């Protein structure tokens, strides 16, 4: 019974043009059509990531994330020690300062900071820098004016 099944399988294969155990049949191959996003040569990682970010519209978010990560490189180490970016929404960067003195200093530098950030991120990405001072209550001393 097994021999009959094997003989039948060989006969069916011969009709199709392939005989078991003899490998693939020689002849012209159909050209291989690459599927989008598959196959081909490997791409450099940076190029592949840029294409992905562009396709998904993530360039601006990634650039803003780079500002948050490189804050000392953008504003300088002394200012970065006393300030930190908190959020970016609708062209407005909110920056927190650890004292009212540093908040005032950052407010005076805000137009320069907007120019510097737009150089980094692209034209008109940042329209305004909002500076917030320390969140804690003010310390009251013995000397104050009423």
Automatic annotation (TrEMBL):
Which InterPro entries is this protein grouped with? DciA-like
UniProt name for this protein: DUF721 domain-containing protein
Region described as Disordered: 1-47
Organism of provenance? Actinomadura rudentiformis
The superkingdom of the source organism is Bacteria
Biased-composition ranges for Low complexity?
A: 1-11
């Amino acid at each position: 019974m097994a021999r009959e099944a094997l003989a039948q399988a060989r006969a069916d294969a011969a009709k199709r043009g392939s005989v078991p155990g003899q490998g693939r049949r020689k002849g012209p191959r159909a050209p291989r059509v690459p599927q989008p996003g598959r196959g081909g040569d490997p791409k450099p990682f940076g190029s592949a990531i840029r294409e992905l970010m562009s396709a998904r519209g993530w360039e601006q978010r990634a650039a803003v994330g780079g500002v948050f990560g490189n804050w000392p490189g953008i504003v300088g180490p002394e200012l970065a020690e006393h300030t930190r970016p908190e959020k970016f929404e609708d062209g407005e960067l909110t920056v927190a300062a650890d004292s009212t003195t540093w908040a005032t200093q950052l407010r005076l530098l805000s137009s320069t900071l907007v120019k510097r950030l737009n150089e980094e991120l692209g034209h008109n990405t940042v329209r305004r820098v909002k500076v917030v001072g320390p969140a804690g209550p003010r310390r009251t001393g013995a000397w104050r004016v009423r």
